[in-house]
C-alpha cells in the first residue's frame, strides 16, 4: 500500500491513454521534439548548426535521463533549464545550440497545446462513441410510450427513445463545440521572451523574413497548421478557458443524463448495468444503487467548476505574463481532462448496457393516463351530440373523486371505471378502451426520433466511424 497520496483520477477513473497523454514522459519527449524542430529549422535557414548535432539530438529524443534532470533542477530551480542541461549531457556536440534563441515557453506552451489537442481528440472520439450507443438505444425504444415529466410531475406521454434523443441533442451540441475548438487550435510558435522575436532577429542579423520562415518551418514540423500571430511570453490563457469551457459543457450533458437515469432508477423504469457480484450497500443487501450514474455526477461536478479557475487565470496575466498560472496549470488542465475522460468511460458503459423495465413503465402510464385521456373523451362525446359544459363538469367531479381514492386511500386510479358507469358518457363506452391506448398519446415522438438521428446524428457518426468502435474502460 502506497503511503503517499495518489490521485484517484489516475488510479480509479481515467483511461491509461488519457493519463499517458499528460505524463512526464509525454511532456518531456515533446520538449525534445520541439528542440529538435527548432534546431533543424535554424539549420535550414543558415545558422551554424551541423547535421551531426541534430543526429545526436534525435538519437536521444526518447531516452530521457530523468535522474540528471532532477538533480540539476534541485540546483537551478528551473525545470526547463534542467532538461536543457540533461539533453546536453546525452548530446554533448549539440549542447551549445539546444534551445537556441528560445524562451522556456517555447517548449512548455507549445508542448501543452499539443497535449491539449491530443486530449481533445480523445474526448471527441469518446463523445461520438456515446452518441452511437445512445442512438442505437433511442431507435430500439422509439415506439415505447412512457410518462413525460415537467417539474418532475407527470405530463403528456413521450417515448423512451424520444427521451434518449434529448440526451443526444446535448451531445450533438457538444460535438459541434469541440469540433470548432479543434479547428481553432494554434501553437504559440517561435516568439522569444516577450513575444517580439527579438532574440531570433539577433540570430539572423535582423532578417525578419528568415524569422518568419523559422516559425513557419517549426510549426510545420509539429503538425499543427498555424501559430498565434501575436503573443506575450505565453500563448493566450483565454485558450485554456475555451478548452475547459467545452469540457464543462460535455460534463453538463453527462450530468443531466446521469441525473435523469438516477430518477428513472428510483422509479424502477430504467436501470444502469448491475453486475452479478456487485454490492449496492454494505448494510442493505437488497439495494441496487446507481453508483455509475452517481460517479458521473461527482466527476462532472468537478469539471463543471473548472471554467471559473481558468477565467481568473486568463484575466490576471499582467502585461506580457505573470507566473501565477504555472503551478495552477500543472493541476487544472490535466485534471479536467482526466475527470471528463472518467465521466465518458462511465457514460459509454451505461449507454450500451441500460436496462428498460417495460411493465413498470406501462403500470405508471396506466395510473396517470385516465386523467390525460379526459380531453379526448370529452371531444368524442361532444362529437356524438353531448353538451360540452355539462360533460366537462362531470369529468371534473369524477376526477376529484378518483384523486381522493389514489392519494387519500392509496387505491388505484378508477376514473375510467366511473366514466364507464356514467350514462352521460354512453356514446363512447364502446370505444373508451381504444381511446386509452398509450400510442394514441405520443404524438410524433417515434418519427421525431427517426428524423433526428437520421438527419443530425448519423452524419456525425459517419464522419467518425473509427470512434464508434471505442469500448468503455471501468476500473472500479
Can you describe this structure?
By secondary structure, the chain is mostly helical. Helices cover 63% and strands 4% of the residues. It has 20 helices and four strands. The protein has helices at residues 8-13, 16-21, 24-44, 51-59, 66-76, 79-90, 104-140, 160-183, 198-203, 208-222, 238-266, 291-304, 306-315, 326-351, 358-372, 374-383, 388-407, 415-421, 432-435, 445-463; strands spanning 145-150, 153-159, 270-271, 355-356. Strands 1-2 form a two-stranded antiparallel sheet. The protein has a two-stranded antiparallel sheet with strand order 3-4. A hairpin with a 2-residue loop joins strand 1 (145-150) and strand 2 (153-159). It is elongated, with a radius of gyration of 31 Å. Mean pLDDT is 91; it is low at 281-286.
SSE order and pairing:
Layout: H1 8-13, H2 16-21, H3 24-44, H4 51-59, H5 66-76, H6 79-90, H7 104-140, E1 145-150, E2 153-159, H8 160-183, H9 198-203, H10 208-222, H11 238-266, E3 270-271, H12 291-304, H13 306-315, H14 326-351, E4 355-356, H15 358-372, H16 374-383, H17 388-407, H18 415-421, H19 432-435, H20 445-463
Antiparallel strand pairs: 1-2, 3-4
Helix pairs in contact: 3-4, 3-7, 3-10, 5-6, 7-8, 7-14, 7-20, 8-11, 8-20, 11-12, 11-13, 11-14, 12-14, 16-17
What's this entry about, in short?
By secondary structure, the chain is mainly alpha-helical. It has helices at residues 8-13, 16-21, 24-44, 51-59, 66-76, 79-90, 104-140, 160-183, 198-203, 208-222, 238-266, 291-304, 306-315, 326-351, 358-372, 374-383, 388-407, 415-421, 432-435, 445-463; strands at 145-150, 153-159, 270-271, 355-356.
Amino acid at each position: 500500500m502506497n503511503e503517499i497520496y495518489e490521485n484517484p483520477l489516475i488510479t480509479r477513473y481515467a483511461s491509461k491513454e488519457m493519463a499517458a497523454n499528460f505524463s512526464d514522459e509525454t511532456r518531456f519527449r515533446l520538449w525534445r521534439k520541439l528542440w529538435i524542430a527548432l534546431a533543424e529549422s535554424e539549420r535550414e535557414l543558415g545558422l551554424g548548426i551541423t547535421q551531426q548535432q541534430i543526429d545526436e539530438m534525435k538519437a536521444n529524443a526518447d531516452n530521457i535521463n530523468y535522474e540528471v534532470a532532477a538533480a540539476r533542477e534541485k540546483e537551478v530551480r528551473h525545470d526547463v533549464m534542467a532538461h536543457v542541461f540533461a539533453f546536453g549531457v546525452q548530446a554533448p556536440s549539440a549542447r551549445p545550440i539546444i534551445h537556441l534563441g528560445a524562451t522556456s515557453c517555447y517548449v512548455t506552451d507549445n508542448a501543452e497545446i499539443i497535449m491539449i489537442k491530443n486530449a481533445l481528440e480523445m474526448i471527441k472520439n469518446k463523445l461520438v462513441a456515446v452518441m452511437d450507443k445512445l442512438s442505437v438505444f433511442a431507435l430500439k425504444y422509439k415506439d415505447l410510450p412512457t410518462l413525460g415529466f415537467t417539474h418532475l410531475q407527470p405530463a403528456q406521454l413521450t417515448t423512451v427513445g424520444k427521451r434518449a434523443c434529448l440526451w443526444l441533442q446535448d451531445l450533438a451540441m457538444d460535438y459541434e463545440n469541440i469540433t470548432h475548438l479543434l479547428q481553432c487550435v494554434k501553437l504559440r510558435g517561435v516568439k522569444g521572451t516577450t513575444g517580439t522575436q527579438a532574440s531570433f532577429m539577433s540570430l539572423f542579423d535582423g532578417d525578419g523574413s528568415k524569422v518568419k520562415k523559422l516559425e513557419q518551418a517549426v510549426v510545420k514540423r509539429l503538425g499543427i497548421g498555424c501559430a498565434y500571430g501575436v503573443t506575450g511570453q505565453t500563448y493566450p490563457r483565454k485558450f485554456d478557458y475555451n478548452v475547459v469551457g467545452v469540457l464543462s459543457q460535455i460534463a453538463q450533458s453527462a450530468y443531466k443524463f446521469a441525473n435523469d437515469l438516477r430518477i428513472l432508477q428510483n422509479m424502477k423504469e430504467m436501470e444502469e448495468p448491475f453486475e452479478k457480484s456487485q454490492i449496492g450497500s454494505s448494510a442493505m443487501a437488497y439495494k441496487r444503487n446507481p453508483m455509475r450514474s452517481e460517479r458521473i455526477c461527482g466527476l462532472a461536478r468537478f469539471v463543471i467548476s473548472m471554467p471559473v479557475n481558468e477565467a481568473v487565470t486568463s484575466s490576471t496575466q499582467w502585461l506580457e505574463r505573470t507566473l501565477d498560472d504555472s503551478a495552477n496549470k500543472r493541476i487544472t488542465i490535466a485534471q479536467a481532462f482526466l475527470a471528463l475522460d472518467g465521466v465518458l468511460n462511465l457514460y459509454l458503459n451505461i449507454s450500451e448496457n441500460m436496462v428498460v423495465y417495460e411493465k413498470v413503465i406501462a403500470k405508471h402510464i396506466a395510473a396517470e393516463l385516465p386523467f390525460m385521456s379526459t380531453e379526448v373523451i370529452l371531444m368524442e362525446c361532444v362529437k356524438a351530440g353531448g353538451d360540452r359544459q355539462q360533460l366537462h363538469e362531470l369529468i371534473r367531479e369524477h376526477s376529484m373523486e378518483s384523486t381522493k381514492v389514489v392519494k387519500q386511500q392509496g387505491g388505484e386510479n378508477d376514473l375510467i371505471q366511473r366514466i364507464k358507469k356514467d350514462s352521460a358518457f354512453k356514446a363512447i363506452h364502446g370505444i373508451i378502451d381504444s381511446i386509452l391506448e398509450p400510442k394514441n398519446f405520443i404524438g410524433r415522438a417515434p418519427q421525431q426520433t427517426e428524423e433526428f438521428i437520421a438527419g443530425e446524428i448519423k452524419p456525425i457518426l459517419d464522419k467518425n466511424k473509427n470512434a464508434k468502435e471505442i469500448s468503455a474502460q471501468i476500473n472500479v
